[in-house]
Amino acid sequence: MIKLVNINMSFGGKQVLNKINLEVAAGEILVIIGPSGSGKSTLLRLITGLLKPDGGQIWVNGREISGLSEDSLIPVRQQMGMVFQYAALFDSMTVGENVAFGLREHTKMTEEEIQKIVRRTLRMVGLSGHEPTMPDQLSGGMKKRVSLARAIAGNPSILLYDEPTTGLDPIMSETIDRLIVSTRRILGVTSVVVTHHMTSAFHIADRIAMIHQGQIIETGTSEQFRNSTNPIVQQFIHGKQSHRAAK
Ligand SMILES: Nc1ncnc2c1ncn2[C@@H]1O[C@H](COP(=O)(O)OP(=O)(O)OP(=O)(O)O)[C@@H](O)[C@H]1O
Fold first, then answer.
1. Which segments constitute the ABC transporter domain (predicted)?
2. From ligand 1's centre to the CA of 231, what distance in Å?
3. Distance between terminal CA atoms of the chain?
4. Ligand 1: which atom is nearest the Cα of residue 43?
5. Where exactly are the structural domains of the chain?
6. How far, in Å, CA of 116 to CA of 119, rounded?
7. pTM for this predicted structure
8. What is the DSSP string of 221-246?
9. Which of 35, 76, 177, 191 has the maximum number of C-beta atoms within 10 A of its C-beta?
10. 96 alpha carbon to ligand 1 midpoint, in Å?
C-alpha cells in the first residue's frame, strides 16, 4: 500500500508538485500519466525515498518514510522493485549476474538458491536460458525484461515502472504490458507505472491518475478516463492517441 498525503516538492524555487494526494491499494496497478515535466518521475523518486518532499507524508506499507535516514530506508527499499526507463543493466555482467546482483548484495542466500530464483524469474519474463548472455547482445525489449526479472528477484511487494515501454515497438510494448499484468497476478504486487503511452495505460490500469501542472487533476478507471468531461484530460488522451497513430 502506498499513500501520499499533501506532498509538496520544489526544485530551485520552482514548485513541481503541489499538494498531491494519492493512494495505491495493495495489489493495484495505478498508472500515472501527464505531460512531459509534470512531475511523474519525481513522484516515483519520492516513493522510493530517493527524494525528500518539502512537505507532506509518504506512507509505504504502513510506514511513513519521508523523515527516514538512508539506513532506515534500506528495509523499505527492499520491499520495492524498480524498472527504469533505460533498463539500467550492468553492461559488464551477464544477464544472470544482473538478475542475481541484489540477492548477492543484500541477502545471505546460497548460490544454489540464487540460481533457482534467477532461473524462475527469467522464465517468468520469457528469457529462459539467457543467463550467460551479455546485455549488449539483447534488444531494448529484452533488456527491459531482464530489468523486470531483476526487480522481481528480490520478491518485492511493490513494483515501480518508469516509462517501461518507451522506445519499444508496439509488439514489444504489448509484451511488456502483458508482463506487468501477469506479474501482478502471479506475485500480487502493488504496481505504479509511469507511461506516455495511452494505449498501455488503458490496457493495464486498474486506475489512472493524471498529473497536470503539479496537481492530480483526475483519477479513475480507464473507462472513467475515456468518458472524462475534463477538457485537459480529453485533449491529453486524444493528442497522445493521434500522435501514436501518426507514427
Ligand atoms: N533533481 C532535479 N533538480 C532540478 N529540477 C528537477 C530535478 N528533477 C526534476 N526536476 C524538474 O522537475 C520537473 C518535473 O520533472 P519530472 O522528471 O518529474 O517530470 P516527468 O513528468 O517525469 O517528465 P517526463 O515525462 O519528460 O519524463 C521538471 O521541470 C524537471 O526539470
1. 2-238
2. 24
3. 37
4. 18
5. 25-52+71-238
6. 5
7. 0.92
8. -HHHHHT---HHHHHHHHHHHHHHHH
9. 191
10. 33
